[in-house]
C-alpha cells in the first residue's frame, strides 16, 4: 500500500492538484459515504438439544415426518414416529437408526426423519446452526442434516421454490465425502445447476465432526470443524434465486436407497446403520 505522503509528493512533482476527497476515491478505496459490508457474529445461543437424557427425542423440541412414499427420490425406507428402534436418546447422544425390516408390504427398511419444532424454538431466520455428528457408513445409506422453510410462501408454495439448505449430505458409496448445497427455483438438482460443493472428511463415519452453517442476508456458508468449504451468495434478483429470508427449521434423517443414495446398490448385510448426534445448537446472528 502506498503511503499518503508519498502520494501527495508525486502529485506535486507532476503538477497535479489533489482536491479534497480525491484521495478517498482512488481505485480500490472506499468513498466517504460508501458503506462497508456488514460483519456478523454468532455467539448468542438461541436453542439447543444436548441429548443429556434417555428415551425418545424431546417432544417439546422435535416432531417427525412419517411415511414411505419415496420422498420424491425413490427412497426405500418407511419413516416411523416415536419408535425407539429408529430414534432414541442414550449415553448422551441421539441415535437415528436405519433398519432392514418390513413393517408394511412396500418398504423393506425403517428409519426416522426428525424435525425441529418451530413452536419449540427450533427454527430461525439468519444465524448459525451446529450439529456434531458421526455418520453411518454402508453402501446405499443416505444421511442428511438440512433445513426447510416453516412457511411455503413463494411461487406455487412448493419445493424447490421455497428453498432448501443442505448442511450435510453423505452417500455411502462415496466414502469420506460430504456435500453441502442450496436449492431454489432458479438453482436446484433436477436442472443440475444447484449451488454445491464437497469436502473430504476421512473419519466421517468413525468420529464426531461439527457440521455448521452460517446464514446472513447475503450468504449461506457451510463448514466442517470450522473449515469453510461452501458459500451460496444472494444475487439480489428476487425470491427465485434467494428464498432464504424467513424462518427455516432443521431436519435430521437417514434415508436408504433412492436416486442418489442407492445409485451403486445397497449393502443389505450392513444393517442396522446409525447416525449419532452429540448436540444440535442454533445461534443468533448479530451485526457488528
Automatic annotation (TrEMBL):
<comment type="similarity">
    <text>Belongs to the glycosyl hydrolase 16 family.</text>
</comment>
<dbReference type="Pfam" id="PF00722">
    <property type="entry name" value="Glyco_hydro_16"/>
</dbReference>
<keyword id="KW-0378">Hydrolase</keyword>
<dbReference type="InterPro" id="IPR000757">
    <property type="entry name" value="Beta-glucanase-like"/>
</dbReference>
<dbReference type="InterPro" id="IPR050546">
    <property type="entry name" value="Glycosyl_Hydrlase_16"/>
</dbReference>
<dbReference type="InterPro" id="IPR013320">
    <property type="entry name" value="ConA-like_dom_sf"/>
</dbReference>
<keyword id="KW-0732">Signal</keyword>
<feature type="domain" description="GH16">
    <location>
        <begin position="24"/>
        <end position="288"/>
    </location>
</feature>
<dbReference type="GO" id="GO:0016787">
    <property type="term" value="F:hydrolase activity"/>
</dbReference>
<feature type="signal peptide">
    <location>
        <begin position="1"/>
        <end position="24"/>
    </location>
</feature>
<protein>
    <submittedName>
        <fullName>Glycoside hydrolase family 16 protein</fullName>
    </submittedName>
</protein>
Amino acid at each position: 500500500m502506498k503511503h499518503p505522503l508519498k502520494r501527495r509528493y508525486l502529485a506535486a512533482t507532476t503538477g497535479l492538484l489533489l482536491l479534497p476527497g480525491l484521495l478517498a476515491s482512488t481505485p480500490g478505496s472506499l468513498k466517504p459515504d460508501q458503506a462497508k459490508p456488514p460483519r456478523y457474529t454468532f455467539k448468542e445461543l438461541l436453542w439447543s438439544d444436548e441429548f443429556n437424557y434417555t428415551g425418545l427425542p424431546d417432544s417439546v423440541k422435535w416432531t417427525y415426518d412419517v411415511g414411505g412414499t419415496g420422498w420424491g427420490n425413490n427412497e426405500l425406507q418407511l419413516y416411523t414416529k416415536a419408535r425407539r428402534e429408529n430414534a432414541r436418546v442414550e449415553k448422551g447422544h441421539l441415535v437415528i437408526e436405519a433398519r432392514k425390516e418390513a413393517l408394511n408390504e412396500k418398504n423393506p427398511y425403517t428409519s426416522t426423519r426428525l424435525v425441529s419444532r418451530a413452536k419449540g424454538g427450533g427454527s430461525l431466520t439468519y444465524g448459525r446452526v451446529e450439529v456434531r455428528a458421526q455418520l453411518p457408513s454402508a453402501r446405499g445409506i443416505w444421511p442428511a442434516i438440512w433445513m426447510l422453510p416453516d412457511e411455503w410462501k413463494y411461487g406455487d408454495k412448493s419445493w424447490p421454490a421455497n428453498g432448501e439448505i443442505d448442511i450435510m449430505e453423505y452417500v455411502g458409496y462415496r466414502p469420506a465425502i460430504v456435500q453441502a448445497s442450496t436449492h431454489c427455483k432458479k438453482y436446484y438438482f433436477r436442472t443440475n445447476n444447484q449451488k454445491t460443493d464437497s469436502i473430504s472428511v476421512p473419519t466421517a463415519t468413525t468420529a464426531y465432526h461439527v457440521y455448521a452453517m452460517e446464514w446472513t442476508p447475503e450468504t449461506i456458508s457451510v463448514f466442517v470443524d470450522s473449515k469453510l468449504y461452501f458459500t451460496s451468495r444472494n444475487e439480489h434478483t428476487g425470491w427465485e434465486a434467494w428464498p432464504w429470508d424467513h424462518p427455516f427449521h432443521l431436519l435430521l434423517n437417514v434415508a436408504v436407497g433412492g436416486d442418489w443414495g442407492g445409485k451403486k446398490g445397497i449393502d443389505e448385510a450392513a444393517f442396522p446403520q446409525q447416525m449419532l448426534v452429540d448436540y444440535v445448537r442454533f445461534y443468533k446472528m448479530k451485526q457488528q
